[in-house]
Amino acid sequence: MQNPYVPYPVRIDAIDVATEDKSLKTFRFSFLDPEDEKKFNYQAGQFAELSVPGQGEIPIGIASSPTEKGFLMFTVFKTGKVTNWLHEMQPGDIMGIRGPLGKGYPWDTLVGKNILIVGGGFAFTTLRSSIKMILEPENRSKFGTLDVVYGARTPGMLLYTDELTAWEKRDDIHMHITVDGTDDPAWNYHTGFVPALTEKVAPAASDDTYAIVCGPPVMIKFTLPVLEKLGYSHDHIIMSLENRMKCGIGMCGRCNIGTERVCMDGPVFTLAEINLTPSEF
Amino acid sequence: MTILTIDRTSWNAGLDRARGDYTLVGSAWDADCLGFRELAPDEYPNMEGLLTRLSPKGVVFPPSQIMMTCALKPGDVKQNIYVSEEKLPSPRAVIGIRPCDAKALSLMPLNFDTGETKDPYVLNAWESCTWIGLAVTEPLASDFSTSCGTGPFDESPLDVLLVDDGERYLAKVITDKGTAWARSAGFETEAEEGAEALIKTKKEAAERAITSAISFDRIKEKTVLELYEANHWQKTTFACLNCGACTFACPTCWCFDIQDEVYEGKSYRMRNWDSCMTSLFTQHGSGHNPRETPLQRTRQRFMHKLKYFQDKYETGIMCVGCGRCIEQCPAGIDIREVCKTMNSQA
User: Fold this and answer.
1) What is the mean pLDDT of residues A111-139?
2) A47, B71, B153, B193: which could join B76 in a potential S-S bond, CB 3.0 to 4.6 Å?
3) Which B residues in the span 68-127 are in contact with A, Cβ-Cβ below 8 Å?
């Protein structure tokens, strides 16, 4: 019987400060045993437990793409005991990763479809994984149009800015970047909140168009009515939830919304599925 | 299936013989608290049929256990690499467990074996046990096990059912594991022909003594949202202090927390019982809490036991009617009344 609680040993290869306020750092890990990397077979939208010895575990969305080999990437907000410690760790340090966990975005359904990605703040991690995967030369032709609405409080709080700039220059992805506000005269993109921008730039609703929404509760709260107004049906709106988790494998009992365990049955659900549950997220 | 007769004067000697093959687990007094635990080599299980304060779930799911350890000292080749502490337990004979408690533990694999993943700590511990139940001949007023798909003489989760018959036990040996234990103990005298009828008579008397009859049929028929949004929850949960006594006493509450503890250069990843009654149970790192109010937390417990579990596994409700939460709730909340309210027409 394989023990699902024991993490794979990994080494921190690189740590980058991800935002101007230094509250987010991006960590790149490699597996100590190459065989473990083969077992860690994941999809965009899944998460893993980062295991910091002596401190505990935290569930974090996987920010690297399954098409990127040789490393795993996570962007972590400093907020509690484990993440505070993790932010002080150094390249070369050994820790653990347990996963992949949960269900990713429904890629079998999304093949051949237009995709609207709506993201906000530091929930952009699994969306970065998804965009990176879709844009790979071997994958891009499998999908229709790709629109991305991404917002942060200020320009300095946007994640993965080098990649955002590179994606901006491509003609097979439509980037719509916004910040809540800025006094930076060099800011060339949108200003305002994600829901308002979504209403302006979202592709027309159709049977062949799906929206993936991931962000803070307030962004989700105001984006869903916009998508409904635009005609997106509830089974074409896909969301990723972030309930508190411990085990990540459906056993410890805390992340449920009704009969659904967010860690195992999710974290990805359609709005149609969520509508059948108590809104405890 | 065989029915044995075990004279009480030979009971302890039989248990002693079986200690060669089994670790004995049974109910025992610690100060003023009766609970289930491993028995010392010279200790015998309490066989008075009393309701233990905590259920026997700790036999397979301890209140606190080490899941894995890792070295933290610099220079250790295994520094920061966790190694599992799971052990294959030696065979254990759990003596005198109430049939409804054994039923509760028999539901645990539904939670701890999801098909995709298996919890080796719980499943190995569960598998190591031989369940020697003691029929409940004098049910408490809070017992409503017969409404919950089990009962005072339920054989289904047991390997052996013991029935108190004065100077002797009648032992109904149900499974091969039960046969092995009885053989190990040297219990081999078959009971007289009328023993089965005698057990049946005692069973009927015990079931008649349980006066609570609770229905769950409408809870099954109603949708999750109909039950969740019903307007009685303010009243139903008003008295609840969120103390969590019910969750710790309950044989079907299996929620847990995982925490790292550091001691002398080593990290211990611990699993501890947890409770959906606490605010921290669901509080996000951001401070946002999907179950922020006492009402939400108490509603979660009843909805989980009586609706979510039933819908998810279709094996009935997640309650065996043992009555511990009724006996121990400091606010006098009676789950039977909650069942009636949830099951009402409204």
Assistant:
1) 96
2) B71
3) 68, 70, 72, 79-84, 86, 111-112, 114, 116-120, 123-124
pLDDT digits (tens, 9 = 90+) for B66-99: 999 999 999 898 999 999 988 888 999 999 999 9
- What span, in angstroms and rounded, lies between the C-alpha atoms of A269 and A209? 16
- Residue among B10, B58, B12, B13 nearest B251 (CA): B58
- Give the C-alpha separation, B4 to A252, whole Å: 41
Torsion angle defined by CA atoms of residues B118, B122, B127 and B131, in that order, rounded to the nearest 10 degrees? -140
Structure tokens at A114: 């237009």
End-to-end Cα spacing for chain A: 33
- Alpha-carbon distance of A89 to A63, in angstroms, equals 19
Whole-angstrom distance, CA of residue B327 vs CA of residue A58: 38
CB contact under 8 A, A252 and B258: yes
Model confidence over A204-217: pLDDT tens digits? Answer: 999 999 999 999 88
Residue B295 belongs to what H/E stretch?
A: helix B294-303
Q: What domains does chain A contain, in order, with CATH numbers?
A: 8-100 (2.40.30.10), 107-240 (3.40.50.80)
CB contact under 8 A, A96 and B81: yes
* B82 with A79: Cβ contact below 8 A: no
Total-model pTM: 0.94
Domain boundaries, chain B: 2-342
- Tell me whether B263 touches chain A (CB under 8 Å): no
User: Chain B partners of A33 at a C-beta cutoff of 8 Å?
Assistant: none
Going by C-beta distance under 8 Å and a sequence separation of 6 or more, which residues neighbour residue B279? B242, B289, B291, B292, B297
Rounded to whole angstroms, the Cα distance separating A33 from A31 reads 5
- Is residue B188 classed as helix, strand or coil in its secondary structure? coil
Q: Can you state the angle between helices B294-303 and B335-342, rounded to 10 degrees?
A: 80
Burial letters for A33-46: b for 16+ Cβ neighbours within 10 Å, e otherwise? eeeebeebebbbbb
Residue B35 tokens read as 């609970």
Q: What are phi and psi of A33, to 5 degrees?
A: -110, 115
* Rounded to 5°, angle at Cα B61 from B59 and B62: 75
B270 — contact with chain A (CB < 8 Å)?
no
Interhelix angle A217-229/A194-201, rounded to 10 degrees, is: 20
